[in-house]
Amino acid sequence: MYMELGIFADPYDISEDHSVWLGDFTGSIAWKQPRGSPFISLVEKGKSYVMAAWRTTDDMSCYSRPGQSLDELDETLGKVGS
Fold first, then answer.
1. Nearest CA to 6 among 35, 32, 43, 36?
2. Do the Cβ atoms of 42 and 67 come closer than 8 Å?
3. What pLDDT was estimated at residue 81?
4. CB of 51 closer than 8 Å to CB of 7
5. Which of 26, 31, 45, 71 is the most buried (most CB within 10 A)?
């Protein structure tokens, strides 16, 4: 199996200076570019979301932790959608 892009919720560690990882402000969601895959670049990040430019698209990933209130989820989705 060949993976071109990985998305991780609650990763153990995201290295700030590692060029193949992109993470949000809280460390709850991350993108990883596998070796040999097309380059990814950060478009935007915030609390519980990160957007990456990959190939010809901007791809968004967000994370809603268990127990998060509906107000917190609505706030995150509002930021993602804007």
1. 32
2. no
3. 62
4. no
5. 31
CA distances to 1, 5, 50, 72 from 38, rounded to whole Å, are 17, 9, 18, 34
Structure tokens at 17: 């200076």
Residues 6+ apart with CB under 8 A from 43: 51, 52, 53, 58
What distance in Å separates the CA atoms of residue 59 and residue 25, rounded to the nearest whole number? Answer: 17
Give the model confidence (pLDDT) of 16-69 as tens digits.
Answer: 666 677 888 877 777 777 777 777 888 888 888 888 888 888 887 877 778 888
Distance in angstroms (rounded) separating the CA atoms of residues 23 and 44: 10
pTM above 0.90, yes or no: no
Pair 8, 41: CB distance under 8 Å: no
Cα(21)–Cα(11) distance, rounded to whole angstroms? 11
**CA 25, CA 27: separation in Å to the nearest integer?**
6
